[in-house]
Design brief:
The structure is a homodimer of 210-residue chains.
Chain A: E1 2-4, H1 5-10, H2 13-22, E2 27-28, E3 30-35, E4 41-46, E5 50-54, E6 57-63, H3 72-80, E7 82-87, H4 93-98, H5 109-113, E8 117-118, E9 127-128, E10 134-145, E11 150-161, H6 175-178, E12 182-184, E13 188-197, H7 203-209
Antiparallel strand pairs in A: 2-12, 3-4, 3-7, 5-6, 6-11, 7-10, 8-9, 10-11, 12-13
């Protein structure tokens, strides 16, 4: 089917929300770990992690700060300028999804949802013990998206933790071997099967293939 | 292994590029279709599509405009403020990857890489005939990321095309059924297998599970 703008806007609200949330394709399933000024840890499932650049190493997460409800992740990052991203393992997708429930401020999703807090060196925010691939970030930039009031928080990667055998000689990370999950929309999780790795491609190579 | 900031920066350039490009997890493999003022079509593989919001329906793509080499996608979007995103089917990942080669300005990636230009209604930019899920967007906002000079282009979805049977009653899109591919780093493609869909979760539901 083909939907035009007015037909998209006329969809029932939940259907539109789910459809539009799925339309970009697969998203990375990540748990964002933060800590409050009072030392209370927080963990939240995010599908909006975006690679921004590799030198300096930067990534972004999209947050929605201006709502009636409490936004612990945003508030904690604003308070101490650091956060962790942790890949969700395929065997833990339900636990990860549970972090989207609204817990009380004195409850940590680590405990409530069955994840282990892991502190590495003197990095202030908690990592997820069950995640195989994780990064610690320092807040670098905050960009407001005027069109809808969301905010892209950009962090500089200052620490990485992952098993050596997931990384090839060239630096490729094997997401199938790592068991990292993908997310579609707000609540559907996928496993990943590696199809192929292609070399850097030149115009002449393409011409020869055809 | 654990890498600290200085160790990340000390990695060999290509290895750092590949590692940091993989660290966010799986990315959606999308082909971005544009057209120049002179009517020349362009098609380019992107892994940086980001869901921004569903009301209004917005998504973003990250582009790197300020480089020595030609950036047709950015230039075309600046020229006529529209673009398409098209899911890469798992059977076409090599063709899609080939669009990353630097073709001459008078060559269209549609022809060179074996994709069919599809025009829907009076939408000016070309869609990909081989893609099952696609959206047409109108440029809404341009956000410069000061930390590295990249630009987040935000488009409003004004047209959607996808088969009815990929969409559930609730609006969930089945990416496995659609055969949409994921991308890791710059050049590794993945297929997707649906694991589970979870309902909206309440704090009390989580308490009961544990």
């Amino acid at each position: 089917m083909i939907l035009k703008e007015n037909e998209i806007l006329d969809l029932e609200r939940i259907k539109r929300l789910n459809l539009i949330n799925s339309i970009t394709g697969i998203k990375p399933a990540n748990l964002i770990g933060t800590i409050s000024s009072a030392g209370m840890s927080n963990l939240a499932i995010f599908g909006s992690t975006l690679h921004i650049g590799s030198n300096p190493p930067l990534l972004g997460i999209l947050v929605r700060p201006v709502e009636e409800i409490r936004r612990d992740t945003y508030r904690n990052i604003m308070a101490n300028a650091c956060f962790t991203i942790n890949h969700v393992p395929v065997g833990r997708v339900q636990h990860a999804h549970n972090t989207s429930a609204k817990f009380e401020q004195w409850e940590s999703e680590f405990i409530e949802c069955g994840f282990t807090e892991e502190f590495i060196g003197d990095f202030p925010a908690p990592f997820v013990g069950e995640s195989r691939i994780k990064a610690g970030l320092s807040l670098q930039e905050e960009l407001e998206i005027r069109s809808n009031g969301t905010v892209l928080l950009i962090g500089r990667i200052i620490m990485l933790s992952l098993p050596d055998d997931f990384i090839s000689e060239e630096g490729y990370v094997d997401l199938e071997l790592a068991g990292s999950a993908g997310l579609s929309g707000l609540n559907t999780y996928y496993s990943l099967t590696k199809l192929d790795t292609f070399p850097y491609v030149n115009r002449e190579d393409v011409k020869e293939q055809t």
